[in-house]
Structure formats: C-alpha cells, structure tokens
Amino acid sequence: MKRGLLVAALAAAVLVVPAASASRPHRLNLALVPLPKSALGSAAATFSLSYDSGRVSNANAAAHTASATPKTFKKLGRVSGYGLEYGNAFTGAAGITDVRTSIEQYKSSADARRALAFWRKNDAALSDLNSLNFTVTSTPVVLPAPAPKTSHFAYLTSYSAANIAPVSGIDEQVADGRFILDVIVTAGDPALAEGLAPTLATQLDARFRQWRNGHLHAKPVKLLRQKAGPPPGGPDLSALALRKTDLVGKATISKGYVTDPNAISDFSVFMLPAGQFDALDQEIEWFPVANEASFFADFENAATLAVSGTTALDLSAIHDNAQGSVTPGSFSSGQVFLSSGQLAEFIFTGREGKISSTAVTSVAQAAANRIDAAGLGS
After folding, report:
1. Which long-range CB contacts under 8 A does 214-223 form with residues at least 24 apart?
2. Is the Cβ–Cβ distance between 170 and 156 less than 8 Å?
3. CA dihedral sign of residues 214, 215, 219, 220
4. Contact 289, 344 (CB under 8 A)
5. Is it the case that residue 55 has pLDDT exceeding 80?
6. What is the DSSP letter of 223?
7. Span 346-352, mean pLDDT?
8. Which domains does the chain possess?
C-alpha cells in the first residue's frame, strides 16, 4: 500500500467495456454509473476531476487496503468496476473537499455481499493506524438505506496530527444484486461529510437502477491524462535522489519520473542491490498543498508502525519532519518518511536477515541533506 487515508476506503474499480443489454451484465458499461460533476450539487461546483478517476485493476484495488492481494479480490468474485472522483481530499479546508462515487461488479449477489463485509472490515481496521502522533478514529455510522432490499454500511474516519489540518470522510457502500455502489465524501468538518453522503448514495443507487434497466442515456465522463515530469513551476525532484555515494557498497540504480494520481509529480529511484541493503525504493513527490504532503507522510508512517514487530526510530535530530521504523523478519525492512512544504519522500529499504537501524537512519539523514541543499528544507 503506497497511499491511504480514506485511501483505503477510496478503493474504486474499473473496466470500461461496450454497452449491452441487461441480460449480459459483463458487457454493461460501468463507466456510466458513477455520478458526474453535474449531479453532485453546489458543494462540488468548483471541483476538478481527479486523476484518480478511471480504470483500477484488482492489483490497484488491493494496494488501497491494509493486507489484500489481487488474489483476494479474485476469490471474492470481483469482475470489474469504475469510479469518478472530484476535488482533493487532503487539502485540510473546512468544507467539503472531495467526492468519489463508484461501482464494482461481482460474479454473483452472494459474492457482492461477501465483498461488502470485506470492505466493512477494511474500514474498521483504519483505527489500527492510531498512534501517539497520528490520531485515527474509524467508527460505524447509522445512515438510511438508499433503497429497499439492499445491504449497506457507513464508516466515518477522521485523522488529525500536530502538523496537519483535520481530515474526515464518510464511506457509504451498498450491495445491490451483483454490484457494490460506493460513495466517499471528505471534509474538514465531519458533520458536512455525514450530511451529504446519504443524499449522494440515494442518487447513485437511482442512477444505477436506471442503468441496469437500460434506461440511462449518458456518455462516460472524459478522463484526464497525467504526464510524468517535474512539477510545473516547482523544483526538479531529481536533485533530491539518493546516490551511490549515500550508501555503503555496490548499488545499481534505476530512476526517472513516473505518475501518481495523488501527486503533481513523482520521481522514483530504485536500487538493486543497494549498498548495505538488498533493495531500496525512494519516491520523491510534490503535492498540490503542504497539508497533503504532511498527511501522506504521517499516514504511511502510521501504516508501517501498525505492522506487528515494527519499532519506531528516533529521527528527531534530522530535519524535515523525518519519521521512520524497522520491521524484522526473514527479509527485514526499514522505512523513512520526510515532508517539507509540498514535498514528501517515502523511502523503503529491505535486507535478507537483520536490518541495521543505524543504516536506515543514515539513509534518512542523506535524504534530508539533499532536501536542505536544494533549499526545500523545513
């Protein structure tokens, strides 16, 4: 999992295929079901379509959970799905900041009900991320069913920390036949999210029923294409990349700009071998706002600390809000997270056998030094 928040809840699925009759649901065009911007009301009037809209494979869906794999979804009978997202969930603004609606298709009604139970458990597990410096609560909320003879649940998840503005989101999911409908509303004020979600869930279910009965006449929303490269008007992130000289021993490096729907820009560095480690992955990302960069660094740190056996590292002597941990095992790992302004870095190291806390700390210091040298330090 490389991103989260509601991100764990923000799991939408997707497969755009030609439309067909209701008697052949595997050919139905799922892209028509999620609510377009025109249906979201005044709360989302100024929102832009997110790059996180569109096709999501089982592998991508699994990446938005704590422990699932693509095989998990295959066993659940998941066929496909589609989602549209408007706004930015992590700005920290006081009002509604993000709305996502989506649909997932399963092989049978029983599969959909089992999957609904899986997603309910996944939302509840977000409370496991609660830690000393990152407060997370995820509690069930009683909301009216959007339609009769459907199964549904809703969870309110809230996040807060000293370095971020609070973020809250309602995730309401509905199993209707072989399909699961999902509405996620994010806001700085949880009451606003809780107030809007049921309305949108009712609208989504009504649109779904029109679609299923062949009465929905609409065109899919045109998706955006994200290009890999430096952030417009921002720094060249490649200057922050770790180098062979930052490690001890042989290192083979692969690097370059990649795309990440949550970030404006992402420069990725992968080393195999990686000096004192067997492997190292560094993701250097530039976000739309500082609150988002800090949030994702905090979230990923909390996610690693929730893994059994993981021990936090004291990186307080390193600038740029450095946080980190080590996780023992037959293949041990070390994790480092840094944030400064709109910049966040995620560094993952791995080694067969025991991993050195000192080695992980040295990587954190090297990364912070490069941030500071580029004039981006906090």
Report:
1. 214/21, 214/22, 216/32, 216/33, 218/32, 218/36, 219/32, 220/16, 220/29, 220/31, 220/32, 221/31, 221/34, 221/36, 221/37, 221/49, 221/53, 221/84, 223/49, 223/53, 223/54
2. yes
3. negative
4. no
5. no
6. P
7. 97
8. 5-212 (3.40.1000), 237-373 (3.40.1000.70)
